[in-house]
Design brief:
The protein has a 6-stranded mixed sheet. The model has no long low-confidence stretch (mean pLDDT 86). It has 2 helices and 11 strands, in the order E-E-E-E-E-H-E-E-E-E-E-E-H. The protein is mainly beta. It holds the Pfam family CheW. InterPro entries: CheW, CheW-like_dom_sf, CheW-lke_dom. This is Chemotaxis protein CheW.
């Protein structure tokens, strides 16, 4: 049985993945308009097909330092709690298909990561999308429901 595909991306030379079903589109890097008073992990907002989309800086979320955009930097547009968000990353790698037996649970879920897997000799951390939603909205004091 074929496993669900995940989209592998890079943040600070580390590999992560999210379920590809959550991804709407991968955008080339574009500057974000700042949002005064927003949480530190909100890089700003972009206009995506007429929608105002907040962009989460995954460097800031995971490593507490802002992303420095490079040529390969991307913004993943995704659905979170019924709303579109952007996720700023260093780069996008490929679709992966981690098998259940390749996955290993990790204890620290404070940033939305609950599993790792070795895929083609690469260690990749997998985001639990529902947990990430709850954490993201908890940080903003918003109910995700």
């Amino acid at each position: 049985m074929q496993q669900q595909p995940w989209l592998e991306f890079v943040v600070a030379d580390e590999r992560y993945a999210v379920p590809v079903a959550q991804v709407i589109e991968i955008l080339s890097w574009r500057e974000c308009d700042p949002v005064p008073g927003a949480d530190i992990f909100i890089r700003g907002i972009i206009n995506f097909r007429g929608n105002i989309v907040p962009v989460v800086d995954m460097h800031q979320w995971l490593h507490k330092t802002p992303l420095t955009p490079q040529e390969d930097s991307k913004i993943l547009t995704m659905m979170m709690a019924g709303e579109m968000i952007g996720v700023a990353v260093d780069g996008v790698e490929e679709l992966i298909y981690p098998q259940q037996e390749q996955r290993e649970s990790i204890v620290d879920g404070d940033n939305g990561l609950t599993e790792t897997c070795y895929y083609h000799d690469r260690l990749i951390a997998l985001f639990d999308w529902q947990l990430l939603q709850r954490l993201f909205y908890r940080e903003q004091d918003v109910d995700p429901e």
